[in-house]
Automatic annotation (TrEMBL):
The entry's keywords: Carbohydrate metabolism, Cellulose degradation, Glycosidase, Hydrolase, Polysaccharide degradation, Signal
One of the record's GO molecular function terms: cellulose 1,4-beta-cellobiosidase activity
Residues making up the signal peptide according to the UniProt record: 1-20
Membership in a protein family: Belongs to the glycosyl hydrolase 7 (cellulase C) family.
High-level lineage: Eukaryota, environmental samples
The name this protein goes by in its record: cellulose 1,4-beta-cellobiosidase (non-reducing end)
Top-rank EC class of the record's enzyme: hydrolase
Organism: uncultured symbiotic protist of Mastotermes darwiniensis
Length: 439
């Protein structure tokens, strides 16, 4: 028994002591009661270095060949460090508001974007069961141009960040471990409590990222993906309920395989007003005016859920979601299995949402419980054109026109230099029974 315990300690993902981990505080309301929460930044953004020294284990988009010749040795040598939230990541909080800055020039590095999770306490993610509930927040996207995405969403992460299932993980939720989503991302530096360094290949179009042998899959509820020009709400489901590790081509497109070859639905079933035929609903000076903060209400009708409804509140008025206006598609202003099947048929898209279980599987993922993610990012793969422009760029088929941004927009080098001062502000998060959080 002593030998087994020793091995777990030697190869575990540990934490550093150079910077104290002091989580930004964030209050929110649960069924009308104020809850004192915290947020933590994802482990992918954290400094990874050797124990007791400041030597980098990961630098740029490469793992150290000497310190990380394999995952076990890498885990033995390397630790995750605490975060300077405002100085390094441009993350600040005040009361019920959280602001994420896009580019932050710190003392030792330049940081781009961030991904944070809401904590219940210092070491545990807050878990939400969305079945039959309503989730509301206020957001300011006035400072987000084409190519950026201020995303607020839920994923089936473990509440402890994976420490229970993967004893090699000593960092846990406190240090932002355990991420997964429906894209089965392989760019994660740590999966299942160990470094994802084996087979790591640097990305040619991103000086900070690469892809490893493994990916991390789970269902994902994209409540909010948006900038000032476009927005979408999109559920995604996976065959398994909870976080699972994939390998290689089984991770789908991110693992070098077919886009629809993973156990998850990568496209999801999106409701994007512009894409669905209403080009006067969302944007600067439009019905929902993105020059001003807006309160976003998402209702998960039924337990288990059978329908997702969206409302907006701005200027004291409740604004119902727009209706579809696409030839051959019935009128919808909410998401359901019926809408998803009809939308995929009208656009000629792969109906992977229904193939992976649709709302039946979504309800099961909600029952297990999901973690709230708050992020800001740019897109090194397709320049965010899937959200706010025409994608594929040469396509004329229905559904390809997703937003008003030019197809030349969103290039990361451009937005990171020209729009470095961009930011998103999330505030006044409320969770409760339907029709209880916004009136």
């Amino acid at each position: 028994m002593l030998g087994i315990g020793f091995v777990c300690i030697v190869y575990s993902l540990g934490v550093g002591t150079n910077t104290a981990e002091n989580h930004p505080k964030l209050t929110w309301k649960n069924s009308g009661s104020t809850t004192n929460g915290e947020v933590t930044v994802d482990s992918n953004w954290r400094w990874t270095h050797t124990k007791g020294t400041t030597k980098n284990c990961y630098d740029g988009n490469l793992w150290s060949k000497d310190l990380c010749p394999d995952a076990a040795t890498c885990g033995k040598n390397c630790v995750l460090e605490g975060a300077d939230y405002s100085g390094t990541y441009g993350v600040t909080s005040s009361g019920d508001a959280l602001t994420l800055k896009f580019v932050t020039h710190g003392s030792y590095s330049t940081n781009v974007g961030s991904r944070l999770y809401l904590l219940k306490d210092e070491k545990t993610y807050q878990i939400f069961n969305l079945n039959g509930k309503e989730f509301t927040f206020t957001v300011d996207v006035s400072n987000l141009p084409c190519g950026l995405n201020g995303a607020l969403y839920f994923v089936n992460m473990d509440a402890d960040g994976g420490t229970g299932r993967y004893p090699d993980n000593q960092a846990g939720a406190k240090y932002g471990t355990g991420y997964c989503d429906a894209q089965c991302p392989t760019d994660l530096k740590f999966i299942n409590g160990i470094p994802n360094s084996d087979g790591w290949k640097p990305q040619s179009n991103d000086k900070n990222s690469g892809n490893g042998k493994y990916g991390s899959c789970c269902s994902e509820m994209d409540i909010w993906e948006a900038n000032s020009l476009a927005t979408a709400v999109t559920p995604h489901v996976c065959d398994q309920v909870g976080q699972t590790r994939c390998e290689g081509r089984a991770c789908g497109e991110n693992g070098g395989g077919d886009r629809f070859g993973s156990s998850c639905d990568p496209d999801g079933c999106d409701f994007n007003s512009w894409r669905l035929g209403n080009k006067t609903f969302w944007g600067p000076g439009l019905i929902v005016d993105t020059k001003k903060p807006v309160t976003v209400v998402t209702q998960f009708v039924g337990s288990p859920v059978t329908e997702i409804k969206r409302k907006y509140v701005q200027g004291g008025k409740v604004i119902e979601n727009s209706y579809t206006n696409i030839e051959g598609l019935d009128k919808f202003n909410s998401i359901s299995d019926k809408f998803c099947t009809a939308q995929k048929k009208a656009f000629g898209d792969n109906d992977s949402f229904i193939k992976h279980g649709g709302f039946r599987q979504l309800g099961q993922s909600f029952t297990k419980g999901q973690v709230l993610v708050l992020s800001l990012w740019d897109d090194h793969t397709v320049n965010m054109l899937w959200l706010d422009s025409v994608y594929p760029t040469n396509s004329k088929k229905p559904g390809a026109d997703r937003g008003p941004c030019p197809t030349s927009s969103g290039v990361p080098a451009d937005v990171e230099s020209k729009n470095a001062g961009s930011s998103v502000k999330y505030s006044d998060i409320r969770f409760g029974s339907i029709d209880s959080t916004y009136k």
